[in-house]
């Protein structure tokens, strides 16, 4: 078993600087690992700290305590102490993030929006566009939309463009932040098969999935975040 992600003694406390520096401890002693080819899902009630953990792994939230170790080839990198430039290069080459929200880029076509992460990893532009079209077709985005910028697409169409963009590149670690929220059953099934393919390729995945049906189909393990919750003294 190759460990791809290891959180070791991670803690997160928010400090509200505009409210007299009130400190809100959220999680502490977070310890778990995710192996290559495994999909682990963070469980626990609303407010338990699932998003905070995912955002620390992606480097969006600073991790003040503990280590977040990611295996990159034959090296191990600690995201908790990584410089912003290192985090950006990890996001290009090693860690992908699939959420339900598309950040629309004006005047860029759906195909180019989807292909971009793969081109950033060094792929040939024509091959990347081909793979982008395959994914858009699998996710039932109508072909007449592929050459248009997604700004005017429906919410569901934008969401599927974003999923295609999240799954196109080759990352060792993929973070799934409610990727199937508000998708219909047919497209949820497509996401399940995309996750299965990533597992076969040895990609480690860590996700938040409130959709119980999808969670049951893709989660190899549930990590209960309440185990790490900081209870008020
Ligand atoms: N940027 C922030 N500033 C201050 N507090 C925050 C911030 N982000 C999260 N929190 C607090 O941390 C706690 C955990 O939030 P988080 O979003 O991680 O929970 P969650 O388990 O993902 O919840 P949900 O299932 O509702 O999305 C909450 O009490 C929330 O108010």
Describe the structure.
Belongs to the ABC transporter superfamily. Keywords: ATP-binding, Lyase, Nucleotide-binding. This is Phosphonate C-P lyase system protein PhnL. InterPro entries: AAA+_ATPase, ABC_transporter-like_ATP-bd, ABC_transporter-like_CS, CP_lyase_PhnL, P-loop_NTPase. The model has no long low-confidence stretch (mean pLDDT 93). This protein has seven helices and nine strands. It has helices at residues 50-57, 84-93, 110-120, 125-138, 155-168, 185-200, 212-218, and strands at 3-16, 22-35, 39-43, 65-72, 75-78, 95-99, 173-177, 204-208, 221-224. The radius of gyration is 18 Å and the shape is globular. The N and C termini lie far apart (39 Å). With 233 residues, it is of the alpha/beta class. The chain has a five-stranded parallel sheet, sandwiched between helices. The protein has a four-stranded antiparallel sheet with strand order 2-1-4-5, with helices on one face. A hairpin with a 5-residue loop joins strand 1 (3-16) and strand 2 (22-35). Helix 3 packs across helix 4 (125-138). Helices cover 34% and strands 27% of the residues. Adenosine-5'-triphosphate (ATP) is lined by residues 14, 24, 26, 44, 46-52.
CA radius of gyration: 18 Å
Number-wise, the strands total: 9
The biggest beta sheet, please?
Answer: 5 strands, parallel
Structural class call reads: alpha/beta
Please, how many helices? Answer: 7
Query: Which residues sit in consecutive blocks of at least 5 with pLDDT less than 50?
Result: none
Percent of residues in helices: 25-40%
Question: What is the CA–CA distance across the termini?
Answer: 39 Å
Question: What's the mean pLDDT score?
Answer: 93
Strand order of the largest sheet: 6-7-8-3-9
Report strand %.
25-35%
* Ligands present: adenosine-5'-triphosphate
Overall shape: it is globular
- What would you call the quaternary organization? single chain
What is the helix/strand order? EEEHEEHEHHHEHEHE
Keywords: ATP-binding, Lyase, Nucleotide-binding
GO molecular function, one term: lyase activity
InterPro entries: AAA+_ATPase (IPR003593), ABC_transporter-like_ATP-bd (IPR003439), ABC_transporter-like_CS (IPR017871), CP_lyase_PhnL (IPR012701), P-loop_NTPase (IPR027417)
Organism: Roseibium aquae
